[in-house]
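Appendix B. Extra example for self-study. Work through it before the problem class; the solution is given directly after the inputs so you can check yourself.
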Amino acid sequence: MVSIKDVARDAGVSPQTVSNCINNPDIVKPATRELVAASIKRLKYTPNASARRLRMQRSNTIAIGIAPTSRSQVYDRLLHALVTEADARNIRVTLYKTDSHQDEIRQFAALSAQGDVDAFILTDTAHGDPRINWLNEHRQTFVLFGRPWGLDDMYDPSVPWVDVDGRHGIADMAQYLILHGRKHIGFIGWPGLSGTGNDRRMGWQDVMLGARMATEDELDTLSDTAEDEIFSAQIACTRLLERRPDIDAIICVSDTIATGARLALAAGSGDDGIAVSGFDDTATAESMGLNSIAQPLTESARELMRIIQERLDAGPDLQNGVDDCHVLLPPKIIIR
Amino acid sequence: MVSIKDVARDAGVSPQTVSNCINNPDIVKPATRELVAASIKRLKYTPNASARRLRMQRSNTIAIGIAPTSRSQVYDRLLHALVTEADARNIRVTLYKTDSHQDEIRQFAALSAQGDVDAFILTDTAHGDPRINWLNEHRQTFVLFGRPWGLDDMYDPSVPWVDVDGRHGIADMAQYLILHGRKHIGFIGWPGLSGTGNDRRMGWQDVMLGARMATEDELDTLSDTAEDEIFSAQIACTRLLERRPDIDAIICVSDTIATGARLALAAGSGDDGIAVSGFDDTATAESMGLNSIAQPLTESARELMRIIQERLDAGPDLQNGVDDCHVLLPPKIIIR
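Solution. Structure tokens for the complete assembly:
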């Protein structure tokens, strides 16, 4: 690698003069500048990126957290799309390890104090997320992949996000099933208060009530919940079918739960004819022939990068004035 | 963020003096140094990472390529393990986009010319890989996840690698199946000359010949090949069964091919009792109840980081003298 010292030696000037030619050309005599420029060209000198970044006060790097083990194929796929979109904008993607929100905040502090990162992308967002407060208090640029899920902060300009409209996707699936003759459509969701989970359940509920396929009271008997793993889903599916043996389709909140449901049905009466659908269109859904819902990850990555770039260009004082920073993208139903 | 100028103002000295106190303390008077040190402490000034790196000539960053779409759950899982291992050593992981070997070499050139990256991790290695030559010619530190697969370069100290012993894993699986009463064990591999694919096939061949379960001539009728996708694997499995209806187990080179084989069998005689095994222990293998072979990715990540660190510590002139830079790790068979 050619260094600033090599250029200085070649041009017969001091390294400080070369540095001035690059960073403060005004204070260097024109003749000296030309001499140094010729040496830079001859030696093919590339100013060190760390040096250049120091001048620009921009690292051209964004950071995204990654858990110690792969929890979701969707986040892994988003990473691929994100690197492609970032590369097109000459932006680097750096990863940091995250075990918990507190751990992640420690990483924000380190990465931002060192000026290594221009912006953060947050995933796995929840209501009252402490990461959002920290980033806003420390005037860091960020965008969520997922919604903040609070009544008060959903359209707050200081909390930009890109998300996929799960409610819309599940409603599309329910409508498709009804159009194809299914009448008693069950739902298996996640337990507890998950913003994403509740939103997806609403999609099923909207269509079931709207198409008069169920009354308000019936919704409870037609639905059940399971942790996001196969065994828990098998139990939930068996329980649901015992309660409602008339069920002819089951919409699940995830492909993992759909897999468990499919396995429970296969272990039961064999060819049951019950349509099972999941969410995320994973390799498993494809292998098992499950219907699913595909998230538009390339488009999501593009919108995340667009929002980051617009906010960085506006600067810390004006970034909350940037429009169009809450983007809900429609997913696509996949029928097998 | 506190800057060097803030410290200078606070200490009543020039920014250059503050810089000298940090980078060339010898040339500053002790009294001035103490004054500046007190200001640094009072203002909680952290030297900018770009500035610090410039001095250290180390970016504390490693880079790994990532394809535009997720091709393998194994690489995605490795990424998680790698970030965890790197974090423990205070090393950053940055991603770059790669479409082809040539594209990747362009990325090497950019990342190394800018001094942004200390070392590279290469995946998807093949015999005569042009990336390896480029990195060695340009004296860059790197390590392969996968072997170079050349007779001449397998134990070349200038081509360090970490890999998982697929031959060993497949042989373990074949032995397990024979111990559990299987006699006619087929194999579905990849077509063409894949180092990894041939190595895995050798594991099956070793055991079949060693246990006298097949003659050399029989190996061809007991094996077939398929592209790494479900449909191609279904066809190969059907063809294999037509040729050898006595087959009672099929070992596949990947989980994707095992999935295709399982689907072909299910579409045939129903409960066939044929044991199907894959490779990589993906979520799909778990969902479909397939036997598989798990790669030790945490251990792989640890070895990759160890080799990089040892080579960086040795420096460019001595790094090829570092021992223990060819590591073959045993995988684990998973029986379901």
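Self-check: Chain B touches chain A through 47 residues (CB under 8 Å). If your reasoning did not lead you there, revisit section 3.
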